[in-house]
Amino acid sequence: MTSAPTRKVNPPCSADAVPPAGPSPDVDTAVRRALNQRPDIAEARKQIQIDDTNVLLSKNQTLPDLRLQAAYLTNGLGGTKLIRTGGFPGTIVGTEKTPFGTVLDQVITADFPTWSLGFTLTYPLGKSVEEANYARAKLERDQTQARLRDAELIAVRQVRDAALRLEQNRQRIETAELGRTLAQQRVDAEQRRFEVGMSTSFLVIQAQRDLAEAANNELQAKLAYQLSAVAFEAAQTTSGPLSR
User: Fold this and answer.
1) Average pLDDT of the segment spanning 44-52
2) Helix 39-61 and helix 129-195: axis angle, to 10°?
3) E runs forming strands in the chain
4) I need a labelling partner for 54 at 20 to 30 A (CA). Which of 6, 139, 195, 239 fits?
5) pLDDT band at 100 (very low <50, low <70, confident <90, very high)
6) Are 172 and 214 within 8 A, CB to CB?
7) Concatenated DSSP letters for 122-178?
8) Are 21 and 173 in contact (CB under 8 A)?
9) Which domains are assigned to the chain?
10) At what angle do helices 129-195 and 27-37 cross, to 10 degrees?
11) 66: β partners
12) For 74-93, what is each residue's pLDDT tens digit?
């Protein structure tokens, strides 16, 4: 009795060398993580805070402007004083000098105080540049809020799409593993049938070929799962289109 031929086509590498598939993805948790950690969403939220500040400042500039001003001064008189007699302009009959020390004492003791108090009120009439700036600031804030909503919708869609591909590839692994198991069983069965003369070498080689193809399909399914797992993780932490 002749033994069965040992023709076998091996896949590029063993499927056992690829990390096993994990459980089904938690889509809700992944969506929450994406909304909290994606840089495009975080940037849009920070920009909204900046726009809110600009809106507040622009609104304040459209309000009436009331300013209160108060001042208090002390003076000192010094130098040479001309002494006159008679009517205006009079006749100079002498001089009187006040030294710098005396002037300084006058300032310190407030011999000649001066104070003032006043206020100014400014109110814009009709359309003003400030109102235009206020309207522009509100428009920019609304646009930023719209971009934030768009970014959140894109993030949710990308995470759900990546989770769907991950789950599909996980199920693909299960199907591929089942196909490889059935192919291995067929090889074993054809081997036994060949040994008792109930099969041919062609059928055995064909079964071995199908087994190699099934093993390769399993390897490809596991590699596709790992790539989709990376894309699923990236969808939660990276902005921009992701597809695989």
Assistant:
1) 93
2) 170
3) 65-75, 79-85, 91-98, 112-122
4) 239
5) confident
6) no
7) E---SS-HHHHHHHHHHHHHHHHHHHHHHHHHHHHHHHHHHHHHHHHHHHHHHHHHH
8) yes
9) 17-62+129-237 (1.20.1600.10), 69-122 (no CATH)
10) 140
11) 121
12) 877 767 766 777 777 777 76
